[in-house]
Amino acid sequence: MEIAGLACHKSLILPPESENAQLRAEGKDVIWWIDGDGNRQGDPV
Predict the structure, then answer these.
(1) Total-model pTM
(2) CA-to-CA distance for 21 and 41, rounded, in angstroms?
């Protein structure tokens, strides 16, 4: 996806294995992009 001329990315971070046995263990979506100076911006990993 491109927003304001920058390529934006969406990733899924899965929960740790220790949480998979829990009833509602969920992954987390993160959104990030590289700014004009080459720095990653958005959700931290």
Answers:
(1) 0.53
(2) 32
Helix (H, G, I), strand (E, B) or coil at 16: coil
| Contact by Cβ (8 Å): 25, 19 | yes
C-beta separation of 6 from 34 below 8 A: yes
CA–CA–CA angle 8, 40, 3 (5° rounding): 25
Q: Which residues contact 18 (CB under 8 A, 6 or more apart)?
A: none
In the chain, which stretches have pLDDT less than 50? none
**Residues 44/35/1/45 CA torsion (nearest 10 deg):** -10
